[in-house]
């Protein structure tokens, strides 16, 4: 098995490269030219690192030559100042160019596309929990671009007989990042996305309640940013979010890449269970005090991994407590 991994310097990508090497696969790692995070791959032996932009068809054709599998992880999550057409070009038409590269190279045994819970409209989830049959109507730039990538993949696969599978990630967290998730500072940043207007993937969350971050700040007073914080809806029901440890995300991708029953299907890849904000804050507080802020709405972004469990044998090992506790384990951190 010779695998082309795009986004190989990313949070999932570098750990995916290690997983493939452990399975005795040959790995060609595609990284953006000049990416400082490519240093993550420097200590990994027998990896062919190829700098290439997802907009460069000739470079992608060369990268696809001779590989048997493609793991397409590369994506731009936050648009920022990137023009909308370039943002879609990276997240959707980069997939098309890789598929074209695979076809021109004579085909592959499997093309794995990493997608996202963002295709399910995370700011206003249509159901709880989200399963793979949930309507995909994201209505934001990132979710729409990733959904377009899925559509392109399905149609190109039908047109050119490309075996494929899709994984839709929950919020991917590296262990060294986990200790910040349920803190006041992190949640202030989350709710602060209201400033992005409809450029945010969570804009529906703020549609009726643009004051959420103001309410948080009023309740927090001068509490430090590191304060473990619980957000609740009316009556005290806690918010919840589904996280996935980067190591579990990698295992889900590997199973979807190699399991015969994954062909032609999409699978949610998430942690063992959603994390309620009160449980998450309690882990960080470790018996100490937490800050609780009641907001006028309740948000629950939860997924089911039943399909991946039943079909692929996916068994995520890391809940939120395990993420926080395993910060010193052996993995590639999110940033060098």
Description of the structure:
By secondary structure, the protein is an alpha/beta fold. The chain folds into 2 domains: 2-174 and 242-273 and 301-318, Rossmann fold (3-Layer(aba) Sandwich), CATH 3.40.50; 176-241 and 275-300, no CATH class. It has 12 helices and 14 strands. It has a 7-stranded parallel beta sheet, with helices on both faces. Helix 1 (11-22) packs across helix 9. The protein is globular, with a radius of gyration of 20 Å.
Features:
Epimerase_deHydtase, 12 helices, NAD(P)-bd_dom_sf, 336 residues, alpha/beta, seven-stranded parallel sheet, 14 strands, three-stranded mixed sheet, 17% strand, Lipid_A_modif_metabolic_enz, Rossmann fold, 2 domains, single chain
Strand and helix layout:
Layout: E1 2-6, H1 11-22, E2 26-31, E3 47-51, H2 57-64, E4 69-72, H3 84-104, E5 110-116, H4 141-160, E6 164-169, E7 171-173, H5 175-178, H6 184-191, H7 203-206, H8 212-220, E8 229-232, E9 240-241, E10 243-245, H9 246-258, E11 266-269, E12 275-276, H10 277-285, E13 291-294, E14 300-301, H11 306-312, H12 320-325
Parallel strand pairs: 1-2, 1-4, 2-3, 4-5, 5-6, 6-11, 7-10, 8-13, 9-14
Antiparallel strand pairs: 9-12
What's the alpha carbon Rg, rounded to whole Å? 20 Å
In CATH, what is the homologous superfamily of the largest domain?
A: NAD(P)-binding Rossmann-like Domain
CATH architecture of the largest domain: 3-Layer(aba) Sandwich
**Beta content:** 15-25%
The separation of the N and C termini measures 28 Å
Order of helices and strands: EHEEHEHEHEEHHHHEEEHEEHEEHH
The CATH topology of the largest domain is given as Rossmann fold
> Which consecutive residue ranges, at least 5 long each, have pLDDT under 50?
none
The helix-and-strand class reads alpha/beta
In DSSP terms (H or I, runs of 4 or more residues), the helix count works out at 12
CATH class category of the largest domain? Alpha Beta
Rounded mean pLDDT is 97
| Secondary structure: number of strands | 14
Strand order of the largest sheet: 3-2-1-4-5-6-11
**Roughly how much helix do the residues carry, as a percent range?**
25-40%
Q: What's the overall geometry?
A: globular
Q: Tell me about the largest β-sheet.
A: 7 strands, parallel
Total separate domains: 2
Region (Disordered): 117-136
InterPro entries: Epimerase_deHydtase (IPR001509), Lipid_A_modif_metabolic_enz (IPR050177), NAD(P)-bd_dom_sf (IPR036291)
Domain NAD-dependent epimerase/dehydratase: 3-270
Protein name: NAD-dependent epimerase/dehydratase domain-containing protein
């Amino acid at each position: 098995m010779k695998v082309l991994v795009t986004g190989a310097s990313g949070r999932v990508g570098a750990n995916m490269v290690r997983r493939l090497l452990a399975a005795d696969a040959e790995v060609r790692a595609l990284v953006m030219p000049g990416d400082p995070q490519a240093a993550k791959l420097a200590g990994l032996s027998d990896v062919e690192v190829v700098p290439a932009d997802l907009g460069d068809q000739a470079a992608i054709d060369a990268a696809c030559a001779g590989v048997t599998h493609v793991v397409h992880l590369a994506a731009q999550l936050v648009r920022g100042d990137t023009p909308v057409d370039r943002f879609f070009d990276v997240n959707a038409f980069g997939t098309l160019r890789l598929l074209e590269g695979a076809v021109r190279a004579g085909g592959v045994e499997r093309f794995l596309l990493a997608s996202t819970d963002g295709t399910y409209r995370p700011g206003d989830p249509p159901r709880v929990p989200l399963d793979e049959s949930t309507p995909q109507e994201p209505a934001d730039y990132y979710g729409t671009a990733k959904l377009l990538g899925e559509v392109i993949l399905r149609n190109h696969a039908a047109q050119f007989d490309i075996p494929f599978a899709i994984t839709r990630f929950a919020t991917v967290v590296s262990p060294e990042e986990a200790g910040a998730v349920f803190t006041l500072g992190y949640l202030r940043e989350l709710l602060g996305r209201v400033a992005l207007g409809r450029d945010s993937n969570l804009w529906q969350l703020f549609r009726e309640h643009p004051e959420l971050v103001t309410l948080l700040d009023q309740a927090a007073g001068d509490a430090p940013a590191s304060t473990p914080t619980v957000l609740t809806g009316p009556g005290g029901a806690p918010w919840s979010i589904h996280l996935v440890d980067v190591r579990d995300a990698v295992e889900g991708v590997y199973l979807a890449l190699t399991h015969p029953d994954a062909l032609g299907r999409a699978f949610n890849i998430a942690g063992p269970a959603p994390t309620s904000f009160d449980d998450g804050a309690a882990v960080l507080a470790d018996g100490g005090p937490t800050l609780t802020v009641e907001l006028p709405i309740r948000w629950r972004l939860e997924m089911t991994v039943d399909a991946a469990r039943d079909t692929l044998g996916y068994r995520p090992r890391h809940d939120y407590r395990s993420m926080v506790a395993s910060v010193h384990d052996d993995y590639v951190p999110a940033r060098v």
